[in-house]
Amino acid sequence: MCNKQGNTITYKLTQPTPIIFQISKINRKKVSSSKGEGELIDLSNSNLTFQTTLQLPTDNNIELSFTFFIGFIEMTLTGTVLLKKELSNSYLYNVEISSDNRVSEIIYHLKNYERMSIG
Q1: Coil, strand or helix at 105
Q2: What is the CATH number of the domain that holds 64?
Q3: Distance, CA of 17 to CA of 70 (rounded, Å)
Q4: Which of 7, 33, 37, 77 has the most CB within a 10 Å radius?
Protein backbone atom coordinates (compact mmCIF):
# COMPACT_ATOMS: atom_id res chain seq x y z
CA MET A 1 0.00 0.00 0.00
CA CYS A 2 1.48 3.33 -1.08
CA ASN A 3 0.60 6.60 0.64
CA LYS A 4 1.95 9.93 -0.62
CA GLN A 5 1.99 12.95 1.67
CA GLY A 6 3.90 15.99 0.43
CA ASN A 7 7.30 14.72 -0.70
CA THR A 8 7.16 11.59 1.48
CA ILE A 9 6.11 8.28 0.00
CA THR A 10 5.37 5.54 2.54
CA TYR A 11 5.00 1.95 1.42
CA LYS A 12 3.31 -0.38 3.92
CA LEU A 13 4.07 -3.96 3.00
CA THR A 14 1.10 -6.31 2.59
CA GLN A 15 3.18 -8.94 4.41
CA PRO A 16 6.18 -8.26 6.65
CA THR A 17 9.46 -9.01 4.87
CA PRO A 18 12.27 -10.87 6.68
CA ILE A 19 15.21 -8.56 7.36
CA ILE A 20 18.73 -9.09 8.71
CA PHE A 21 20.39 -6.25 10.60
CA GLN A 22 23.48 -5.48 12.59
CA ILE A 23 24.87 -2.51 14.46
CA SER A 24 27.44 -0.87 12.19
CA LYS A 25 28.25 2.28 14.20
CA ILE A 26 27.93 3.50 17.77
CA ASN A 27 28.55 7.22 18.29
CA ARG A 28 29.95 7.37 14.73
CA LYS A 29 32.59 4.71 15.48
CA LYS A 30 32.51 1.60 13.29
CA VAL A 31 31.64 -1.61 15.07
CA SER A 32 30.65 -5.06 13.92
CA SER A 33 27.93 -6.71 15.97
CA SER A 34 26.41 -10.11 15.46
CA LYS A 35 23.46 -10.21 13.08
CA GLY A 36 19.86 -10.07 14.20
CA GLU A 37 16.61 -10.98 12.50
CA GLY A 38 13.41 -9.03 12.19
CA GLU A 39 10.60 -8.06 9.86
CA LEU A 40 10.38 -5.00 7.66
CA ILE A 41 6.94 -3.43 8.23
CA ASP A 42 7.02 -0.29 6.12
CA LEU A 43 9.40 1.91 4.18
CA SER A 44 9.38 5.55 3.12
CA ASN A 45 11.93 7.69 1.36
CA SER A 46 13.25 8.80 4.76
CA ASN A 47 12.33 6.09 7.33
CA LEU A 48 11.76 2.41 7.78
CA THR A 49 9.92 0.50 10.48
CA PHE A 50 10.94 -2.96 11.55
CA GLN A 51 10.02 -5.40 14.31
CA THR A 52 12.33 -7.76 16.19
CA THR A 53 12.44 -9.72 19.42
CA LEU A 54 15.81 -8.12 20.22
CA GLN A 55 16.08 -5.09 22.45
CA LEU A 56 18.56 -2.69 20.86
CA PRO A 57 20.27 0.25 22.55
CA THR A 58 18.84 3.59 21.44
CA ASP A 59 20.80 6.05 23.55
CA ASN A 60 24.18 6.11 21.77
CA ASN A 61 23.45 7.27 18.21
CA ILE A 62 23.18 3.71 16.87
CA GLU A 63 23.53 3.10 13.13
CA LEU A 64 22.15 -0.14 11.75
CA SER A 65 22.84 -1.89 8.45
CA PHE A 66 19.92 -3.82 6.94
CA THR A 67 19.78 -6.53 4.30
CA PHE A 68 16.61 -8.00 2.84
CA PHE A 69 15.44 -9.62 -0.36
CA ILE A 70 12.74 -8.60 -2.79
CA GLY A 71 12.30 -11.77 -4.80
CA PHE A 72 15.88 -12.62 -5.73
CA ILE A 73 17.19 -9.06 -5.47
CA GLU A 74 19.27 -8.27 -2.38
CA MET A 75 18.68 -4.80 -0.95
CA THR A 76 20.76 -2.97 1.64
CA LEU A 77 20.05 0.14 3.70
CA THR A 78 21.66 1.94 6.62
CA GLY A 79 20.02 4.21 9.14
CA THR A 80 19.88 5.58 12.67
CA VAL A 81 17.36 4.45 15.29
CA LEU A 82 14.87 7.24 16.07
CA LEU A 83 12.22 5.52 18.17
CA LYS A 84 11.68 2.24 19.97
CA LYS A 85 8.27 0.93 21.03
CA GLU A 86 7.98 -2.07 23.31
CA LEU A 87 5.26 -4.53 22.30
CA SER A 88 4.09 -7.63 24.19
CA ASN A 89 6.73 -10.03 22.77
CA SER A 90 8.89 -7.80 20.57
CA TYR A 91 10.09 -4.29 19.80
CA LEU A 92 9.11 -1.95 16.99
CA TYR A 93 11.81 0.42 15.74
CA ASN A 94 11.60 3.47 13.53
CA VAL A 95 14.84 4.19 11.70
CA GLU A 96 15.89 7.30 9.78
CA ILE A 97 17.43 6.09 6.53
CA SER A 98 20.80 7.56 5.53
CA SER A 99 20.49 9.95 2.61
CA ASP A 100 22.88 7.94 0.43
CA ASN A 101 20.46 5.03 0.09
CA ARG A 102 18.36 4.41 -3.04
CA VAL A 103 14.98 4.07 -1.34
CA SER A 104 12.87 5.06 -4.37
CA GLU A 105 14.34 2.14 -6.32
CA ILE A 106 13.65 -0.24 -3.43
CA ILE A 107 10.01 0.92 -3.12
CA TYR A 108 9.62 0.43 -6.88
CA HIS A 109 10.90 -3.17 -6.60
CA LEU A 110 8.66 -3.85 -3.58
CA LYS A 111 5.54 -2.68 -5.39
CA ASN A 112 6.33 -4.72 -8.49
CA TYR A 113 7.20 -7.85 -6.51
CA GLU A 114 4.02 -7.71 -4.42
CA ARG A 115 1.95 -7.04 -7.53
CA MET A 116 3.44 -10.15 -9.22
CA SER A 117 2.99 -12.25 -6.07
CA ILE A 118 -0.72 -11.37 -5.78
CA GLY A 119 -1.69 -11.63 -9.43
Answers
A1: helix
A2: 2.40.10.220
A3: 8
A4: 77
Encode 10-27: b = buried (16+ Cβ within 10 Å), e = exposed: bbebeeebebebebbbee
Q: What is the CA radius of gyration of the chain?
A: 14
* Tens of pLDDT, residues 7-38: 556 666 678 889 999 999 999 899 989 999 99
Measured CA to CA, the distance from residue 39 to residue 9 in angstroms comes to: 20
In sequence order, the β-bridge partners of residue 39 are: 18, 51
**DSSP 8-state class, residue 107:** H
Q: Which domain holds residue 55?
A: 2-118
Classify each residue of 95-110 as buried b or exposed e, where b means 16 or more C-beta atoms within 10 Å of its C-beta: bebeeebebeebbeeb
The pTM for the full model equals 0.78
